[in-house]
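Quick question, first post here. What does this chain look like in 3D?
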Amino acid sequence: MNRRQTIPKHLRYTIHDFNEQFPTDESCLEHLKEQRFPGGITYCDKCQQDRKHYKITGRPVYSCDHCGTQISPMAGTIFEKSTTSLRLWYYAMYLLASTRCGISAKQIQRETGVTYKTAWRMFRQIRSLLSEADMQLEGAAIEMDEMYVGGKSKGHAGRPMRGDKQKSPVIGMVERSTPEKIGRVKALATPDVTTNQILGLVHEYILPESTVFTDEYAVYDRLGARVKEHKRISHSSKGYVMGDVHTNTIEGFWSLVKRGICGVYHQVSQKYLQSYLDEYSFRYNRRDQGNLIFTSLLRRVSELAAPRAVGDRGMSRA
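> Answer (accepted):
Ran it through. Tokens below.
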């Protein structure tokens, strides 16, 4: 058994590091401010130009040094109007980013003392940062496969019969890694698994010059006309690898998702299934970052913040 730390030193971010960097709500607010308004400089609505803003003691806002107009770094983010400690938000994000299989809202409730309703809402908001809707797979070799999440299927070989509502279909596409770049995955909850659904996703996410690897499922029959080459492996005849022809990469990702859902979340509704898939995909696509996935997640807060809003008492917010 390998007892050594498997994460390289430069990619480690431990709970000790977290406590040192974010000991208080104020330190978290200052970090958020620097992410959104580096150096405290941002546009002032009243002055109609960029101005330096300074922290107001005792309040989570910053004031323009010229006219006094106030802005809040939390405005337009997932933290807006939340009465939960900003440090608890950061801690929840740290835990979600630091595990391979996820962490439940119930565990956050136990660790932080917030109510289950608050913990569930926090994780729902955090997962809203993890969608990468505009991502396109650029690898030369792409594996494609489908899986089903939910109750016992009425069908055979894990595939439900038409009209079976017990399982939710998911289609996955993953790039094979190269020495220069790790492979990324795109997993999508779909209403069904049909040829038209498959071809639509291939057109949207896979480049025409890619080679696509699948199993022998009939819905992939017309895929060859949309890509450079289509290679298939026959699982029904107990074939799993023939040279470079296999779907083991996407199967490995499915394994992470299934074990996470069964072992951590236990069950996931169709309504929120996509947000859970986004969570697993986000971590998988950054698996080369070690525990620094947490810092990538923090950056998403400012990257996806609403550009402008008007708050209470005339407070302007970037």
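The CA atoms of residues 162 and 316 lie 53 Å apart.
The first helix runs from residue 15 to 21.
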